[in-house]
Amino acid sequence: MGEGTIQDPSYVRDAFARIADRYVTTNHVLSLGTDILWRRRVARIVRRWKPERVLDVATGTGDLALEIQDACPDAEVTGSDFCAEMLAHAGRRGLGRTLVADALDLPFDDASFDVVTVAFGLRNMADYRAALGEMRRVLRSGGHLLVLDFSLPTGPLRGPYRWYLHRVLPKLAGWLTREKDAYEYLGGSIEEFPMGEGMKELLREVGDVDPVALPLTFGVASIYTGTVA
Fold first, then answer.
1. 3 falls within a domain
2. Which stretches in the chain have pLDDT values below 70?
3. Does residue 87 sit within a domain?
4. CATH number of the domain that 77 lies in?
5. Cys-Cys crosslink for 208: which of 107, 140, 193, 229, Cβ 3.0 to 4.6 Å?
6. What's the confidence (pLDDT) of residue 1?
7. Which residues make beta-bridge pairs with 57?
8. Do residues 64 and 149 lie in contact, with contact meaning Cβ atoms separated by under 8 Å?
9. Backbone angles phi, psi at 207, to 5 degrees
10. What is the pTM of this model?
């Protein structure tokens, strides 16, 4: 699989629709709750930017959007996703604004938002560069783009983590979701996903974005931020 073509959109949408009811609990179990801490870290970063309008792309069940909504009570937070089943959960959990939308063709005017975030969603998109370009398009001048996603640790932890990623996680996730194949693609998608300098270069290519990378939990995940000139 080459860069930007990790998953077929129909397959991804169907997989998420099938696991929507158990998605939140499964993620917390697989990460031992660390994903909650990562999202809270992102929400604190967003709060420092004091945004008026925030878009969380590929919001899924709304985990990150809800954290931002709590951290930035004066901001208008919108969660978009191409899977209606996942968005239904986000709405029931308290996310006030949701919209079914394809990240490659966002239905918003240019320069509509102060902050655009995407957590664990860019990696599942058919074209990373096109998706980031759309996120960049809807950001105003001086706005902020933030990507939270998995990465691979360096050093002695890399081997054990890759073993867990490919051998343990898919089986455990299949048991938790009762959907055997729902997480089978995850290890490969993480291996292929640009990280570190690769992601920073991709952010530069979308134009006028000065990126910064922040590894989390020994590099198991990373936050990438970029400010639009």
1. no
2. 1-8, 11, 13, 15-23, 180, 182
3. yes
4. 3.40.50.150
5. 229
6. 29
7. 80, 118
8. no
9. 105, 130
10. 0.90
**Residues 6 or more apart from 38 whose CB is under 8 A from it?**
119, 148, 216, 217, 221, 223
Place of tokens 């048991």: 175
- What is the SS3 string spanning 67-114? HHHHHCCCCEEEEEECCHHHHHHHHHCCCCEEEECCCCCCCCCCCCEE
- Is residue 105 in some structural domain? yes
Q: What is the pLDDT of residue 7?
A: 59
> How far, in Å, CA of 229 to CA of 59, rounded?
25
> 8-50 pLDDT, tens per residue?
677 676 766 666 666 677 777 778 789 999 999 999 999 999 9
Domain that holds residue 79: 9-228
Considering the domain boundaries, does residue 156 fall inside one?
Answer: yes
Number of structural domains in the chain: 1
pLDDT of residue 6: 46
Strands (DSSP E) along 172-208, which ranges?
Answer: none
